[in-house]
Amino acid sequence: MAHAHRHTSAHTPGRGAGTASGEAWTQARARTPAEAGGGALGRAAQRASGRRPPPAPRRARAGRLLTPWLFLLAPLALLITFTYAPIANMVAYSFTDWDGVSPELHYTGAENYAEIFTREDLFQVFWVSGYYLAASVIQIVAALYFATILSFRVRFRNFFKGVLFFPSLVNGVAIGFVFLYFFQDGGTFDTVLGLFGYHTDHAWLGTPVSANVSLAGVSIWRYLGMNFVLFLGAIQSVPAELYEAAELDGAGRWHQFRYIILPGIRPVLTLTVILSVSGSLSAFEIPYIMTGGATGTETFVIQTVKLAFQFNKTGLASAAAVVLLLIILLVTWVQRRLVPDDRVDLV
Fold this sequence. Notes:
disordered N terminus
């Protein structure tokens, strides 16, 4: 009995020390998140208790604020250098009589703008843009038609996609020279017409009407593929379940186009119209290469280029460019007001 009592007494201190250290470890473990403030639990406990966490270091906060601007620094520098700075210079030159060569220029106020709006010959060239506006309507309708047809299962549809998109890959200067020989007297166009028994010695680029119609036709051929790709991508983004449900309900191709495709591609259609209108008002490349603005084919941009580099009236040309920019912005604003880009939910 004495031996047993001594054995128990000998081990009692050990058990007491182990129990004390375990209790201390448990208390420290329960106290650490709230009192030490370490980790997410500590921050949550501090917020629950009303105490604010310690502020982040100033260097870390400055780094978080500067990081997005560091990524935007290069594109913003390029945008300001090659877009906004030239526009600002153009607006400044529009109020001067600078000839583009002399180091001296004089402030003339709004004289250049008054000359643009009072000279009939400077604004008559906008009638030429009517041909390109009509061509843009044909181009949009044709691109939408082909995109709709080729979005369904059609034989050789990949081949036709390539044929329609190919003109968009060709350089505009090359297209101008190709069609310059295409429309010349006795050229390819006359030869093709002769195969169908129609022989003519008409100069297709010799009269204002036929020349502008021919140039507008070339613009349709060149830019049809780009609009076709935009429409095709928009149509293919429409969920396929909608077509399947429409077919189960007995809807034909026309009803699928009217009630599924058109609402689904409305944003892309709006964008295409805006680009087509602005491109019609600023047509330059094809008429400049094929006719140089002769025979009544001079557009507003060709006239602006001639004012700047042929007649050395850079100030007047800058004013004309500003007027064209404002007209395009106004047309875009009116179009957006008439046809707002509402979000369409098809499902």
